[in-house]
TrEMBL record:
InterPro entries: Coa3_CC. Residues 13-38 form the Cytochrome c oxidase assembly factor 3 mitochondrial coiled-coil domain. It comes from the Eukaryota. Keywords: Membrane, Transmembrane, Transmembrane helix. It comes from Rosa chinensis. This is Cytochrome c oxidase assembly factor 3 mitochondrial coiled-coil domain-containing protein. The keyword Membrane applies. The lineage of its organism: Eukaryota, Viridiplantae, Streptophyta, Embryophyta, Tracheophyta. The chain crosses the membrane at residues 17-34.
Length: 68
């Protein structure tokens, strides 16, 4: 418990800086962990690209004259 008693003897601004630094570190840690965990594949962009490719292919098939 020596750490807590040492923390109590610090000035209020120093305590605030320590707490703010700890919170900032935690928030950035969670943010970067989350971005790394979900950042592998952008599923929405893959679906959009596939839809656009199918759309272009259907338009190309529709503009070709019939072989009948």
């Amino acid at each position: 418990m020596a750490g807590i008693s040492g923390f109590r003897s610090l000035a209020p601004k120093t305590k605030n800086v320590i707490v703010a630094g700890g919170l900032t570190t935690f928030v950035f840690g969670v943010y970067f962990y989350t971005m790394r965990a979900v950042g592998g594949i952008d599923e929405l962009q893959v679906a959009i690209d596939k839809f656009e490719g199918d759309k272009v292919q259907k338009q190309a098939e529709g503009s070709m004259p019939s072989k009948v």
